[in-house]
Amino acid sequence: MAENLLDHPIYGVQDLIPQKEPFVFVDTLYEYTGLTGITGFEVPKGNVLLDGDELSESGLIEHMAQSMSLHRGYQGTLQGNGTPKTGFIGVIKTVEILGLPKIGEKVKTYVEILHEIMNVTSVSARTENEKGEVIAISEMKTVTVK
Amino acid sequence: MLLKDFYQVVNSSKEADLYISKLKIEKDHMIYQGHFPGRPVTPGVVLMQLFKEEAERRTGKKLRLNRADNVKFISVFDPTQNSELILETTIEDTGDFIKLNGVAKSAEGVVMKINSLYVAS
To answer: Fewest 10 Å CB contacts: which of A19, A25, A82, A144?
Structure first.
């Protein structure tokens, strides 16, 4: 296992991802290594992808995708890049939704870069709720553009 | 509709097993301010949500996504260029699951493909 490169978590990650409000689904970077990361998101009241008092499945999937964006964005700052590159989901190979977090609940997501070819990155993600129960798993390919 | 005022169903039909719905997407919707600033791209998860809501309309059930496989986002859907989106789906009720196979198309061609399973919630 590579060592976590963060002394302390980064709260407020808005400048590290290309997505902006009202379409932001990640707020914390807890841990970072070259190939892995742990991110967080507290489901805000008024989020655009709420379904009643819960984050929708789409919101949860977006959180997993933006967790990957955040990993890449932090990597960019380590390499001295300024603005994070725009990236979006190319393929969701598989996603399973086991539960949905409620407003105010904090989820944690473990991302791992599986491989990277040109501008396509394969990544797996696992999201846990506050009790540490796995609520979603996915494997996707994201595409980065200029 | 999860996203307030995001789209309207303009037309809805069925040919053999294929459901066809024509949607008009609101190009000035606020999500495009964040995804991405100055570069409107319909988020993939929002397109996935359109299929879930199509399955809900066709089955008359409130559904929850259980899993999706091989969801392919083939081309960018920018509603400021063309706001019309066509969903073509087959929907099967297995008893335990609602199974959907779908394709979204714009005037420029295929936007995405999806295979998904929902459960009644």
So the answer is: A82
